[in-house]
């Protein structure tokens, strides 16, 4: 339903006429994300400061209109799809880096800053912000905070929840709050910072974030280890995680993923390769080689086929080409694959992959797995053709089995993509009823009228 | 007011008669903590499992009785003092280490486990849990979680909020909930784990915690650097924190602290020493010396007087003797000192110490400072005699000035001791009204009848 003239005028008065879209044709591109779901917002408001966010939320509250926050729409779960229409608050123009403070290891940023842009500027100061999703070149810090998105470096350096000190945010009742502290310790009041991180714009809209920075290590080295089968690779992962040096990346590809890449590019791995690990270590220049050797020793076991250590920049780039060839190959084979990002305890990666193979056979679905092995965060890709309704029905059953398996192994349904629309129907399998009831009760305190991204993140109830 | 016979009987039925105290003389020792405040509970129930905790809370809820959780009473803020009487739930007998899982880097423990006992057992597996308050030998994991207590290693390894994966806890409405995940990534539902950590038993009582473990580094070395004045030492702290190697401890003592230790033991530092840093680094055996050298280079500046590196166990112990001599010296001079644990941004340590010297002169209070410089977490000790009412009045004004200064410098009132009773009147200086209102609203969801540790952690309101 289009907005009334008076609401449109009020919105234009807040953000400016050149920062407001109301025509359906203009609004459509702000109604989808990487989940390929789409829904038409009634208006898109390009905010540039906290006062505007507050004013738009207050207006929406008065009018009972849903508000959906949007970074650059790289999310994969539909969390930014304005399912119930209403107003999309687009943060892409609210993208200033406000302060970089190396002595205090912090940066203050607006939510629309693109991850890679921040990393580039931080790099000039010798720092980085650990979360680095694959979409870093096109995703925003606000989005990273909304989903607690991490990426490969999380195994050593943590997720946004471990790397954010303080937030400014506008709640669903239109109040601007400050959470957290500017220091790495602080225990006054309850931790609202981490509560808002990962809440997918359902509790409050972040207008400013104070990020905890990490100094860039002097040097890094990359190892590639190939194994006869997933069990040998999983043993290596457990052995690496049980010794004192934590790698800065510990990525894996299963046999199906290797086979797929092999069809499109020369991997340089032997035909019998059943699993592959990419391992990256970092540290002081003078000891990074010995650090790499220590991790290599942990990676060796009877199932190891080949282990290469790349110490120079070009060698490192060559090794990562394997891992990077995967996404184009996947897109080629199944442009509309279902990509899940479940997590299992590291010690259960092997039984999990075994179980996935069983499910793939049972439901006749091709499944390709890769991901962040050091966190047990596995990207499970169901290669399906959405036009094949029979295959899609089997995929739905298969996915159900995947989630069941994850929970049975003590895992979680999402490591870094979040819940959004895609997984809300499965949340109750993981979270028990009293905890879920508390989450709903907390949501009602932040957003009494239920206008912030309604229906996302938690299971639907009869009354929504 | 003593409990009625029927309540006493009901409590005995839950925990057993040998696990219940109701006589005032027996209850007194469970009515105080290290704040030297004291209040008599009506009963002390020694629980041993979650079902008992749940049953006691449900009974308390029916009867409208306050419930105060207690580890071993080492807190310094009165958070475990049962100000409004009621039932103390003592967790000291609920102290089993349930599981240690090195492959998944986690341990599952009951809240009454003593920190040092856990560390000893973890050490046999090559791991540790980073939080290590000075009271580690006598404090419980449940208490560490209640206050988000950290200690020196937090500068490199974080606080309980960064080192806890999952909790089981009983809310104020008597429901047992599970929060978080068993993995290092997970973003399904809101983060209740971190919300409960640091909430001082006001939201829920932890009955089980799944802790994230860190592997023990092969080797460590200790450096001691002395400086002409606090400015030179603060410059060194900033330089150390701006380079890539994060020390595992970065502790400091100001001139007054050094002078005090000097009266009781031979420090082996020159008379002109105005500030001292204790720095510890860890890493692989083969590179820990070069790591120490890199940090030593960052610690050097024109104000440096002397820098010693201890590479052997006995040398390391000798250096730490300086730091460890401090507490006995302080106890000797002012057995009833006021010990605050404020935090300021690292770059503001020097202006903060300058400001403290000004306040000390102005209010004629002797102040001694030391603490965790890498986090900006300064233990500010006001050396007072509680029997001197005039001095205590000046100390109250001085403390007010300390808190004002901390907030003005962008800091926080507590780094690891929490709020309890001691700081509740100051919380509103740090947290803005809408955030405070949200915290109260969240409290009301977890604990609708307000029975869990009433009056602690947040400012009192007219109706409590």
From TrEMBL, chains A, B:
It comes from the Bacteria. It holds the Pfam family FAD-oxidase_C. Keywords: FAD, Flavoprotein, Oxidoreductase. InterPro entries: FAD-bd_oxidored_4_C, FAD-bd_PCMH, FAD-bd_PCMH-like_sf, FAD-bd_PCMH_sub1, FAD-bd_PCMH_sub2, FAD-linked_Oxase-like_C, FAD-linked_OxidoTrans_Type4, Oxid_FAD_bind_N. The keyword Translocase does not apply. One of its GO terms (molecular function) is FAD binding. Its cofactor is FAD. Residues 37-216 form the FAD-binding PCMH-type domain. Transmembrane segments: none annotated. Belongs to the FAD-binding oxidoreductase/transferase type 4 family. This is FAD-binding oxidoreductase.
